[in-house]
Amino acid sequence: MMDRTTKEYAWLVVAILWFVSLLNYLDRLLIASMRTPIKADIPMTDAEFGLLTSAFLVIYAILSPLGGYLADRFSRKWVIFTSLLLWSVVTLITGFVENYTQLIVTRAIMGVSEAFYMPAAVALVMDYHKGPTRSKASGILMTGLYAGMALGGLGGYIATIWSWQIGYHLFGGLGILYAVVVYFTLDDAPGKEPEPGEQQNDFNFIEMLKSLFSSRGYLIILLYGLLGGICVWLIYAWLPTFFQEGFNLSVGKAGVSGTFYVQVASFAGVLLGGFFADKWAVRNNKGRIYITAIAFMVGGPFLYLMAAADLYWIAVLGIVIFGLTKGNHDANFMPIITQVVNKKYQATGYGIMSFFSVLSGAAMIYVGGYLKDIGISLDLVFKIAGIGILISGVVLLAVRPNKEN
């Protein structure tokens, strides 16, 4: 084991968790890329197929606060290792299911196991990276999620060449093997390493709730995250449909227009946002807050521009600029939380935020479809979302870092 006090090990932690983050998103998104072959083997309606994702999201959202609580109270390394191992085993088992009931049960269990990972991972990165590297480290970690989103499409190719079962066996087995690597290379930051099963003695559940919900800054961040989450989930879910219907594109081109541009821009934004936020934070302790707020105050109007555009290239420009600002948010969200939340409760604070963001976002995916069914155009819905993103940026400006943080 390397010396945990060195800068090299701090960056090794990011590298180790980067691949875990990739697997985190890749494994959950396999089902979307293998929809047709799975439905051919396991009869189900489109509504039942949609329920597979809904069940995952609801359980993931509900248990995210518990995941944060466990990461704050116990060893972050052990929470990460256990989460990775469990969801990888579930991924492997999914390749053996034979009916719909078994499939939805595995999706639910995956929601349970994956909910524990992100709060622990971002908190561990914050433990190792303080000051001028915090946002860069957070941003690099988040690129693992983007890579997982992109590689999730490999499932479709694997299903075409071999079978969808092979895809689940392959990536589940890979995750189990990598869990062994995590076990032997990852460690808690110095001073934060209780033994397996040992809890932090000074952790009080009631005090944690009081500390979080009496913090003006944290409540503002909750509002910011809720507004942003509602808008972002809605946009991501319906963006391909917006391009297909608004510009008469083929399904293939609409899919690329609604995913590729925004994800590539977000990938760039997460790196640029982390770099510039760290630079600004050295000169001003609200630097990360300012750059993230300004980004959404710019991204909102460009999202509105996309929704109002009559020309395809203007719509693409709008979504690219929005993607850059969304990436900036991803890089700086956890570093901002650390500025207002007691260091003992930072993973829990992230988990609670995920609960509100994911649950409200999942609901808005349905609401977007409902509004479309009753004749309200996606143009109008996206314009409102653009205004919501702008407002969330203004809200974030009200956050003041705690002096002790």
UniProtKB/TrEMBL annotation:
The chain crosses the membrane at residues 9-26, 49-71, 78-97, 103-125, 137-160, 166-186, 218-239, 259-277, 289-305, 311-327, 347-368, 380-399. InterPro entries: MFS, MFS_dom, MFS_spinster-like, MFS_trans_sf. Keywords: Membrane, Transmembrane, Transmembrane helix, Transport. It is found in: Membrane. GO terms for molecular function: transmembrane transporter activity. GO terms for cellular component: membrane. Pfam families: MFS_1. Gene3D superfamilies: MFS general substrate transporter like domains. It is a multi-pass membrane protein. Residues 13-404 form the Major facilitator superfamily (MFS) profile domain. This is MFS transporter.
